[in-house]
Amino acid sequence: MAETPSGDHERSTGDSDDLKSKMMGFLDHLEELRVRLLRAFLILVIGTAVCLVFSERLIGFLTRWFEPGRGSLALLYPTEGFVVRLKTALVAGIFLTSPFWFAQVWGFISPGLYRDEKRVVVPVVFTCSGAFLLGAAFGYRILPIAINYFQSLTTPGVEVTWSLGRYIDFSLRLLLAFGLVFELPLIIYAAAQLGIVTPRVLRNYRRHAIIGILVVSAVITPPDIFTQIVLAVPLIALYEAGILTAVLAERKQRRRKAER
To answer: Is the pTM of this model over 0.85?
Structure first.
């Protein structure tokens, strides 16, 4: 009976050890992801609970433009009031705790970064959170414009009465949509830093990006042309700003290579 050569045996043992180490590394990453997702969930639950205490004030903050004679809001089914408060508290909790779950995201990514790249994690977390909140603030400024536009479309002599639940859904989706799209320049900057995109590629695919922006605006906003355009225009402007951030990232990479 032929014996297995020692070299083949050592090679197979080495391949088995490499496979085990890779599998262990993958499982470690999954475990860390699970822990960080659990932390983010618990933080969000706490933030939502805090905001639920102030949900009545938050709803008043979103409905302040409904003056007497210019329309009214109504609860159309028994549980609508509770659902509205819960949704408002949840979205407010997302904004309140955004620095914490951005920190969890970057904390999960940071082990794969170089030492000099890890130094920017804290500024990046605050920048992402600031952009998210700034986008929501911009959306809040757009909200009364959208309300006036839709109220102007009513038939003369018809009283304007909207569902409070539908209106809150519209308002919260608008705030979240603007909060997310204001992250676009930061995402492009990060992708340029990693060498995934370049300013030249972004310029060459500008038309494709505009079409994609229009599609995304149609998906994440209510089904009407006005809010789609209101979201698409800033998003296109943010894409152009993203090209500028990509230029800055490219220059930074060149400086880093020159220093080496």
So the answer is: no
